[in-house]
Amino acid sequence: MAEHVRLTWEVMGFNLHADTLVATWVVMGILLIIGWRAGRAVSNRVPQGAQNVFELVLEFLGGLVQENMGHKKGGSLLPYFATLIMFILFSNMLGLFPNLTFGAGHIFGAPNLMSPTADLSTTFALATLTFFLFNIWGFRFMGAKYIPHSFAHPNIAFFLINIVEMVAKPVTLAFRLYGNIFAGEVLIAVLLGFFPISLGYLLGGWMCQVVWLGFSVFIGCIQAFVFTILTIVYTSQAIAGEEH
Amino acid sequence: MFEALSEALKFDVGTYLAQIISFLLLVALLRAVAWKPILKALDERKRYIEETISAAENRQTEAERVFAQYSDDMQKARAEAQEIIQRAQKQADGQKAEIIEAARAEAIRLKESALTEINREKEKALVELRKEVVELSVLVAGKIIEEKLDVASQRKLVGRFVDEVGKLPC
Which residues of A touch B27 (CB under 8 A)? Predict the structure, then answer.
């Protein structure tokens, strides 16, 4: 993969990562099509097809939100959390598919496609949204008390630590997701390099590939879950002091 | 290798901003097409289930109430029927005795009237017979008187008459 130089689009002085953006649009397209199909045939009696999956996600996240911050405060965020987990999950999976673009537009150079979440720009974008989300929610439900709640907790002596924590939250979110997914994709490419399509591949080289793909699916699910639940937890922490 | 790593780690502000916009757009679109209708459907289903359960419970209570009332009514009707039957039986018994009594009285009455009739007929027959006897006697006496009574015969007749009178128990 080293020989592939990433295609960038120069727009207003930025070097946009073409592969990341295209992969993001693919994921968005897939999600919107599934979501549209699920929402169009929505039934309040017997759910069918994609509606089941979407209901599952909503019920699961609804339970987490209810446990962590209560439906009153977190209910309106449910669509955001649900979109977040679905987007990260589908993004993580996209990089596991073989690259069947055959170099069209020179966008994807690796033997596998690319996860939007294997780009630090994407994960930082999501982490930034989480950062803004929990700070806005903190102010919304605690008002001015949110500042001592988050920066002088438990007292002012911990101010610096609180600052570090505030910064660390989005940064760790971004790097954790990025690191897991990027490493997984690099290893997929590397394993394919070790065992090119040959006798060695047929005699057992494919096994490493299959095992790693399976593990990557697992990692992709776990990371989507971790990112989403941490977003929920950070938000609930930000508004936790309200009832005390 | 290092070049590839730095390439991979490259952070681009433009991509970052584009991803923020893309994701917010995705949230808005997905919320409109999927999450909102599905959440609504979930809510409606929940309400529907609650309503159905409460309606079923109401219906069950109602059914139990109606059943209790029906069995109560049935009990009452059965008791009433029993009472009617008993009353009818008693009445029938009374009527039976009355009818038998009346029949007996009628029989007695008939028998008595038959006896009276018989007696009366007997009386009538006796009277008739007596009249006949008297007439015959007068006839016989006339015949006898018509014959010539000689002294000897007169004597014999009177003597017999006296004998007969002497035999009468008086």
Answer: 79-80, 83-84
Measured CA to CA, the distance from residue B160 to residue B169 in angstroms comes to 16
Q: Note if the bond before A148 is cis, omega within 30 degrees.
A: no
Please answer yes or no on whether A186 and B17 come within 8 Å at the CB atom.
Answer: no
Question: Which token pair is A71?
Answer: 């439906």
- Per-residue pLDDT tens over the stretch A11-64: 787 778 888 888 999 999 999 999 988 888 877 778 778 888 888 899 999 998
Cβ neighbours of residue A66 under 8 Å, at least 6 residues apart?
Answer: A74
Burial class, A226, CB count within 10 angstroms (exposed 0-12 / middle 13-18 / buried 19+):
middle
Q: pTM of the predicted model, to two decimals?
A: 0.72
Q: Please, which residues have CB within 8 angstroms of residue A38's CB and are 6 or more apart in sequence?
A: A49, A50, A51, A53, A54, B34, B38
Q: Which residue of A has its CA nearest to B43?
A: A44
Q: What is the DSSP letter of A106?
A: G
Contact B30 A128 (CB under 8 A): no
The complex scores an ipTM of 0.86
Q: Answer whether B41 sits within 8 Å of A47, measured CB to CB.
A: yes
